[in-house]
Design a protein that fits this description.
homodimer, 534 residues, mainly alpha, two-stranded antiparallel sheet, 71% helix, globular
């Protein structure tokens, strides 16, 4: 038999999982159980930590990790079961073992009850909101409505490069409440337009990439700002809301509250973004020169060298031509407009109508399907949506069980006592840690699901102002994606064409991270003080 | 504005739904509420009947119908809610309305609780078993293990046309316990082989179609017999088990019980099937002639005219060549064999290990993924599986709520009193009605989900022997698909090449239906009597 080289074995999937499995096993077998941390909580924690570690260190598919974790927990009966007699949550014991609540032998429902718990996440309405978000985004893409909006923006603002940048930013801010999947919005709608603009300006990754790089970065970071601005700006945002509502009685971070808190700091960031990026990309002097050239009357239509000939009317004319070629709004676009407006109205008024945000999104999809704006095939072939439904459903089960078993509160308590011992200011420390931990994640949603509960628990234990902490964690959930090119599918798509080198991407990311932190801790805090949030 | 012709309007999706909506509205608004049938039960019934009617009469996608039904029920709060104080089920009232159990104003959880109920079906383990079944079937297809099994069968039995037919039947019977999706098994594994055999024999729909027609019909009906023979033979079979266990304390139709009851009548049907079909297809005299020819020594290898030159060694040689070309079993095939055997062992022993059948299937998939036998992409691109997960999850919610609200029991009671009034024998009447109603359905699973509960309830009210009724309904669930070419995706695939005309397909279907009914009511009942089931 041929010998397999060591390097191949070390790169194989089981080998890359070894460190994660080791860490999990250490927690599983070596953590002492106590009143605070039950054996069930330890097991769930072990599987959870192991999953997250594998998520960061390996390229194994997230769905496979989650499924493995759930199967392991099911096999070992490591879920919290409801005691039928008292209605209290308890460990799912094996048949005949003493029930921890009553001392009687545990009435055995077999492994079935435990297994049934592992499927609970799939009926979580948050998971289905994200699922619905993917499909609304698909509709905006399929009907070309998103493309039209972007082209209109360019027609209006496209005379100067800064105008173009602001057009991209405003497209994002306008689309964000309607397209609750930031990847669908950025990757599916805005990115194709940004890429088309860059190419039209004669900027390619190999030839005169500066203008293209600037526009790509604007598109990427505008997407994250808009994602943080609205409750419906990113699919995972409602998870923060759900956890905060569960933890604090008075806190209800609904659509309007979310927007009220974010509108001032997010708009400041959005307005400053193109200016900062122009400076970071080294475009400032060039464009000044161009502005002067333009005022001098050099209004040449030829588009050959972006750096010297820009700005001109070419790109505006291009947008006009494209819009003319698209013709007037199609029936499907009108239908989609109607449905999206209706959804927006229902989301904004949900505190009065008591309609679940997920139900609203599903109703929107239903209307689109019945009117024939999109077909069921568009939905069933949207594999990203189904994939996300699967891994997020499983992840939500685990996070939920982690919380039920008290492990999340235990960790939060540990963090809070550390903060107390070191005498650190709790809210800034928690918020900044939350921001920086995103660096380890390849999915903003995964980061939020994994950490928001623990950090809110820690803040709760330290007596942090509920609204203040919730606001910071809510807004940082999306903003923190600025640091890397793998934080979300959208960032990967803007990075892919190659206008910006990896080192430059990370450098600019950290500049912006610093800027966001400063803005939210000064202007943001000031605004929330005015609102009476702390 | 151009006038749209009436014919177009009448064929449009909303127009075809009009009769279904009318029926639903009639039930919703005109049924008098009583103690037996609460307003909630009437609403759920209206939506359910309307969905089923639309399923039969329109071509609207089943997922869209289910989603519409669920949204309507959510919007009107038509679900059964659990009263937190007493733990009893009650209607979900609007805020402030009197609670039907206590008379106090209903403590309002908004529409959210009601909406949450509509997602319950998605954490049903039956739904996830079907989902897992699709993927196991995919693995059998992807690794080519299924193809190898069929080719081996042909190599062993393929000398005569009846030998080929029995090879197809035994392939199905052997694969059925391992590939719990009958469509994956029939459509994905066996059908391609059957089609290849027919073509190799020189039989096409236009030229000498008799042999091809015979083989296609054998493949189709062998699939249904094997689906009815094992609990894991068809994805929806466990639904019968779940409902029966819920209704009758002593009835546990697990893998072994199911097989014990079915083995005698199903094997009789399987053995008789090729003989009946040879007669129905008018092949009997031809093949006799051929057999004689063969004995006369005309062993020509040329395959040009199937009817005159068959049988010969050509097809056996073809199988041998194909098997040689496939080479020895690949690593992936061995891995799959191992996993399937393990799954089979765990399914067979599940009453001892207390492992959920779904967990076993998921563990199998997990092993395949970790060994690299299949990739997550194979799973996420298997849109049929996701689609089924969606509509079946929604359908299960509705069927479950129908049962919780008492509507299923009410209907069962109505049927049973009708049977009593007319003095009909309950078990045969229920079983035959159940068999024939499949005619209206385009999915065996949908038929089972829709009707098995009601028919078991009716039998329960009439005091029918539990095991007898359960057995008949369990086995007829798959067998009844023989009548039409649209009863399951598998049948549609065998019909599609066009070897058999639609009228011939239906005629032969009814002959077989009659045959199955006779066999199960004579040999089957006799066997179950021996087993002490009645």
């Amino acid at each position: 038999m041929q010998r397999i080289p060591w390097s191949t074995i070390l790169k194989s999937q089981p080998a890359t999982l070894l460190p994660s499995v080791t860490i999990g096993a250490l927690i599983w077998f070596c953590t002492p159980a106590s009143d605070e941390l039950t054996p069930t909580a330890i097991r769930i924690l072990a599987v959870f930590v192991s999953c997250i570690f594998a998520l960061i260190t390996t390229s194994v598919d997230i769905s496979l990790l989650v499924l493995t974790g759930l199967a392991l927990l099911s096999l070992t009966h490591s879920f919290q079961c409801e005691d039928k007699a008292t209605g209290l949550l308890t460990e799912c014991r094996l048949c005949g073992e003493p029930n921890p609540l009553t001392g009687d032998p545990y009435k055995c429902h077999g492994a079935k009850e435990s297994f049934h718990h592992s499927l609970e996440g799939f009926s979580s309405s948050v998971v289905w909101l994200i699922f619905a978000a993917f499909h609304l985004g698909k509709a905006v893409e399929v009907t070309q409505l998103g493309r039209r909006v972007s082209l209109l923006m360019i027609k209006m603002f496209g005379k100067r490069i800064m105008g173009l940048a602001y057009a991209i930013v405003f497209s994002e801010l306008l689309l964000a409440p309607f397209v609750p999947s930031n990847t669908a919005r950025g990757g599916g709608i805005v990115h194709p337009v940004v890429h088309a603009i860059a190419t039209t300006l004669g900027s390619t990754p190999t030839h005169d990439p500066k203008v293209g790089a600037f526009l790509m970065l604007v598109g990427n970071h505008a997407n994250l700002i808009s994602a943080s601005m609205y409750l419906t700006g990113m699919a995972a945002n409602p998870i923060v809301l759900a956890k905060a509502t569960q933890l604090y009685e008075g806190v209800n971070f609904d659509f309007l509250t979310w927007l009220t808190g974010s509108i001032v700091p997010a708009l400041v960031c959005a307005l400053a973004l193109p200016v900062i990026l122009r400076w970071s990309c080294g475009l400032s002097s060039d464009s000044k020169q161009r502005d002067e050239e333009e005022q001098g009357g050099s209004n040449g239509g030829a588009i050959s060298n972006a750096t010297t000939k820009f700005p001109n009317d070419g790109i505006v004319k291009h947008a006009e031509t494209e819009l003319e070629r698209m013709g007037s709004m199609s029936g499907k676009e009108w239908q989609l407009c109607l449905v999206l407006l209706l959804c927006l109205c229902l989301w904004v008024t949900s505190s009065y109508t008591k309609l679940d945000a997920t139900l609203v999104a599903l109703l929107g999809i239903l209307m689109l399907l019945h009117m024939g704006t999109m077909t069921w095939k568009d939905i069933s072939k949207n594999t990203n949506a189904w994939d996300t439904l699967f891994w997020l459903g499983g992840f939500v089960t685990m996070a939920h069980q982690l919380s039920d078993a008290g492990a999340s509160a235990f960790l939060g308590h540990k963090i809070s006592s550390l903060i107390e011992q070191l005498g650190l200011p709790p809210v800034p420390f928690l918020a900044v840690s939350y921001f920086l931990t995103t660096f380890m994640f390849s999915s903003l949603s995964a980061h939020i699901v994994a950490f928001v509960g623990t950090f809110l628990d820690a803040g709760h234990a330290l007596g942090a102002q509920p609204m203040l902490l919730t606001a910071l964690l809510a807004y940082f959930g999306a903003l923190s994606g600025c640091m890397t090119n793998y934080s979300t599918g959208m960032a990967a798509m803007y990075y892919a064409p190659g206008y910006v080198s990896r080192s430059k991407w990370f450098l600019i990311g950290f500049q912006l991270a610093l800027f966001y932190l400063v803005v939210y801790f000064t202007i943001g805090m000031g605004w929330w003080r005015l609102l009476g949030w702390w």
